[in-house]
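2024-03-11 09:14:02 DEBUG pipeline.ingest accepted 1 chain
2024-03-11 09:14:02 DEBUG pipeline.ingest length=294
2024-03-11 09:14:03 DEBUG pipeline.predict start
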Amino acid sequence: MSNIKLIIEERAANIGKFMVGRLLPFRQKRMVGPFIYIDHMGPVKLSERDNFDVLPHPHIGLSTLTFLFEGSIMHRDTLGNEVEIKPGAVNWMTAGKGIVHSERTPEYLRDSPLFMHGLQIWVALPKQLEQMDPQFFHVEKEQIPAWTEGDLQFKLVAGEAFGKKSPVPVFSKLFMIEIKSKTEQVVNIGNDLYGESGLYILEGAIESDGHVYEPKQLLVAKDSTLCEFTIKENSTIYIFGGEAFPEERFIDWNFVSSDKELIAEAKQKWIAQTFDKIEGDETEYIPYPTYNRK
């Protein structure tokens, strides 16, 4: 019997001037462990006239994880951070009770063509930390735990697994693992996983129980401890998950919480523009969307 419980296909979503492939949330699976939102950005080539500009916008109740494969993003936030995100580094911003940030093409690249490709991820906070003070942490590529086992190349982007721990300061028990292989290999890492798990195929393919799965698919496991599959040659995959929370999480635009009242307060605060402003990026912002909600 296959250990794959659900197959989620990327769905096109518009985040302004930029199209992404949305993986989570999904109507049949809102979260995988504490992971509540995953967008696959690109790959796309931006011309010198078409920069990546996500205007200032707010968050509550979550941590954002930005992980680029190609390109560059300048992160600014209301804590005063201004950090360029480059491929392989991890930007980890914890919103807690509220933060505003923007993501733009750095000034020195704005007149040049640019490839953009990466993952934008939200990780929900435990209920007792949803109203914590906001924090920001940047981990350079060289600080991410990386190792090889035969022809398999591993990175522990965030969390704990394999007896290792990423320096990304997460707030619940979780894992995000990169596996690359240039050759066809059997992968068996079930004993190193826990809670819920999902497997995202970035490039290449995997085979499980006689079925071949290809890019732009997120495979959700029935049992994370039965994680065994064949990775095909020239493949890159990401396995993520962890322990699920006992309480439901609600999403409204960029706000996540176990308490709908906190979301309603954040919504009104953003509409009234009483969140803190980003120094040097105060004049523009993304309005709260006016589409009808069911």
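2024-03-11 09:14:41 DEBUG pipeline.report Residues 67 and 119 are 5 Å apart (CA to CA).
2024-03-11 09:14:41 DEBUG pipeline.predict end
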